[in-house]
Sequence to fold (115 residues):
Amino acid sequence: SGRRASSESFVRDGHQDLEISYQEFIDVLVAVLMYRDPNPFRPFIQRFENFLVHGLLVPLKKHWMDKQDNDPGTGLARTLDFGLEEVMKTLKPVRHKSSPTQGRLAAIRETKKPP
Fold:
């Protein structure tokens, strides 16, 4: 069977399964990233890499570590742990910035403080 070029939907055992191509999956990741971090002054590749690591892989690792209570040293959790350890060495630290709205509200509060 060849790869599918676009989304397909089919019914199996009374349940509808949706399949997407690799490119469609990447497009979804990019759309989510552009919503979560729309900063045009930071290079896209940095935003995408940080999103993949901190928004997808780290939470996925935590989920699988929690699921593997009896033996956390094996399986997907171990693979993610090992891979992320290497990636974290090369990533720049993520600075958590407040949203522009929060920054404006803080500035307004500062100007309204009594002397």
Confidence is low (pLDDT under 50) at residues 1-7. The first strand starts at residue 8 and ends at 12. The first helix runs from residue 22 to 36. The chain has four helices and two strands.
